[in-house]
């Protein structure tokens, strides 16, 4: 039993793989942020850059010099490949439920925008779905949030969150489990 007066052991530093995933997710979020708000869901495959270059050396001609240099220094460095031609889906859950990745893909990431309101805002909403949506959209505490989440086959995850009200690169928050439902839905695409 530990003495409450004694300081707890500091958390273990993140693994190189977690650091690479965090960097990739933050980079994806910044990339999507340059496109502005009210954008579509964007899905990415994540591959270890060094492995991809080993399998396809001509890829070096398509990657930025900075990514090549980072991959030389860090064997865990990840390259993100935006997915075009996603299947039709009415919801994000339905879309992710239709995705599966080949073994060469080390992970997956998604960037999506959502409206967030405090739980009490959902009390007393009209029964009509359109009227309920309008009420939520007009709520004074409504916030638009961009969520970027990434997972690796090896289990690591990272989430980055940006609020429209605090729309700056240095105001992006992050943690491994900030959006647990999204992390689990992404993990399911890798099974």
Distinctive features:
six-stranded antiparallel sheet; 6 strands; 191 residues; 22% strand; alpha+beta
Give the SSE layout.
Blueprint: H1 16-33, E1 42-48, H2 49-55, H3 65-73, E2 78-82, H4 92-97, E3 107-116, H5 129-137, E4 143-152, E5 157-163, E6 173-175, H6 180-189
Antiparallel strand pairs: 1-2, 1-3, 3-4, 4-5, 5-6
Protein name: PPA1309 family protein
InterPro entries: PPA1309-like
Structural write-up:
By secondary structure, this protein is of the alpha+beta class. The protein has one domain (16-189). The chain is 31% helix and 22% strand. It is built from 6 helices and 6 strands, in the order H-E-H-H-E-H-E-H-E-E-E-H. The chain has helices spanning 16-33, 49-55, 65-73, 92-97, 129-137, 180-189, and strands at 42-48, 78-82, 107-116, 143-152, 157-163, 173-175. A 6-stranded antiparallel β-sheet has the order 2-1-3-4-5-6. Strand 4 (143-152) and strand 5 form a beta hairpin. The relative contact order is 0.18. This is PPA1309 family protein.
């Amino acid at each position: 039993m530990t003495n409450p007066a004694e300081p707890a052991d500091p958390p273990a530093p993140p693994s190189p793989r977690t650091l690479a995933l965090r960097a990739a997710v933050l980079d994806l979020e910044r990339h999507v942020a340059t496109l502005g708000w009210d954008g579509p869901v964007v899905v990415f495959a994540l591959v270890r850059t060094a492995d991809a270059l080993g399998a396809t050396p001509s890829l070096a001609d398509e990657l930025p010099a900075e990514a090549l240099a980072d991959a030389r220094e860090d064997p865990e460095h990840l390259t993100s490949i935006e997915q075009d031609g996603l299947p039709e889906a009415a919801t994000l859950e339905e879309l992710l439920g239709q995705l599966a990745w080949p073994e060469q893909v080390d992970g997956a990431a998604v960037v999506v925008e959502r409206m967030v309101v405090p739980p009490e805002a959902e009390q007393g909403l009209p029964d009509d779905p359109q009227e309920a949506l309008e009420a939520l959209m007009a709520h004074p505490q409504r916030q638009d949030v961009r969520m970027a989440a990434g997972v690796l086959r090896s289990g690591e995850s990272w989430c980055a969150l940006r609020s429209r009200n605090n729309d700056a690169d240095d105001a992006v928050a992050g943690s491994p489990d900030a959006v647990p439902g999204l992390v689990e839905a992404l993990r399911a695409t890798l099974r």
